[in-house]
Structure to design on (382 residues):
């Protein structure tokens, strides 16, 4: 049996006629950059996430970049984040001349650990604390980071909170008072990616930034368009971060189905657990800690032989992927930061032992059963 890691064709076949109709309408309008479709998508994403505003941008990477730019992050500043994420999370910090300050993760959620965050910030000198500008918690694999203590700590140190929600649209977090909020509506900024493999994926690149502050919203729109406050009048040096209307039109169609697709992912995660009854002896399934895990990825931890398991599954026709094999603090381009092996052990362990399995909405029960059977056949000692 063949079980791909992700298959977007069944999803497309369901919405093809709607998509083609919308593409034709955009082509007939000849309005391709920003415009009514982008404005409509911005309003609906803001409503969906429970945020006051949303600003469409060119990618998830640019969503993070523009949030930092809007806060004036630059040379000499410190931005706190996790070493266990896609490169963009930290790449945007470095591009502005700031330095990432890495904090290790929780061993079961893979999100930044609030206790380690508090400990790391306490260890800073007065001069280092003066350079702190923001913290970027990543809602990795579709589960929110533990936002209540993160926000409290950030406020204590005067930092902005920029949620990297690239993998987490629709994920939910419950605060201690019972309030439930979605990813992107808790911090000062929420940054989303519409890369095709995301739960809400475009037919190319696209992103969105959410916020709740009027002035922040105005700045984001200015920075999105080369810092242009009026035609050819530039208050800031911004960028070309505009979202195009074709992507917005496609995303508007897919947004109608997002919760249906998300619930299917959640069900598929449940089927993995049901069919295995409990964690396999050599494998930990993902921990559902927060209110709603939307399973952009279904990531297992393998006690022994992760790379061997990946190869074994491939031979069985099962797709899998390693997210992420080299933690960011050990990337060659960050040698100057002088991190070494052993400095952030939980992230390093995750990089060596985790593996993503298929979980996409159209996955069938017999396919999941085949994957579980394959997992049970694997002998990690070989």
């Amino acid at each position: 049996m063949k079980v791909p890691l992700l298959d977007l064709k069944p999803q497309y076949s369901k919405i093809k006629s709607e998509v083609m109709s919308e593409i034709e309408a955009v082509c007939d309008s000849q309005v391709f950059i920003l415009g009514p479709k982008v404005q409509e998508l911005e309003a609906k994403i803001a409503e969906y996430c429970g945020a006051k505003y949303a600003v469409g941008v060119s990618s998830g990477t640019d969503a993070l970049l523009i949030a930092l730019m809007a806060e004036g992050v630059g040379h000499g500043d410190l931005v706190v984040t996790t070493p266990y994420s896609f490169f963009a999370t930290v790449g945007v910090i470095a591009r502005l001349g700031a330095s990432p300050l890495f904090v290790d993760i929780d061993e079961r959620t893979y999100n930044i650990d609030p206790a380690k965050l508090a400990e790391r910030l306490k260890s800073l000198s007065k001069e280092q604390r003066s350079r702190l500008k923001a913290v970027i918690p990543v809602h990795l694999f579709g589960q929110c980071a533990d936002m209540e203590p993160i926000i409290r700590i950030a406020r204590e140190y005067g930092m902005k909170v920029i949620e990297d929600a690239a993998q987490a649209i629709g994920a939910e977090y419950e605060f201690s008072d019972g309030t439930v909020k979605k990813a992107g509506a808790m911090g000062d900024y929420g940054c989303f990616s519409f890369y095709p493999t995301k739960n809400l994926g475009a037919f190319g690149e696209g992103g969105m930034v959410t916020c709740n502050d009027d002035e922040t919203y105005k700045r984001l729109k200015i920075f999105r368009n080369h810092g242009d406050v009026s035609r050819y009048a530039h208050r800031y040096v911004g960028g070309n971060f505009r979202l195009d209307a074709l992507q917005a039109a496609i995303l508007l169609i897919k947004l109608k189905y997002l919760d249906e697709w998300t619930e299917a992912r959640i069900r598929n995660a449940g089927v993995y657990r049901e069919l295995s009854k409990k964690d396999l002896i050599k494998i930990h399934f993902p921990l559902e800690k927060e209110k709603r895990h939307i399973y952009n990825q279904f990531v297992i931890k393998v006690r022994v032989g992760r790379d061997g398991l990946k190869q074994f599954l491939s031979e069985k026709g099962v797709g899998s992927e390693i997210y992420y094999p080299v933690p960011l603090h050990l990337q060659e381009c960050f040698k100057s930061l002088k991190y070494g092996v052993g400095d952030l052990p939980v992230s390093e362990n995750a990089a060596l032992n985790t593996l993503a399995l298929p979980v996409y909405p159209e996955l069938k029960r017999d396919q999941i059963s085949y994957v579980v059977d394959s997992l049970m056949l694997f002998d990690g000692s070989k």
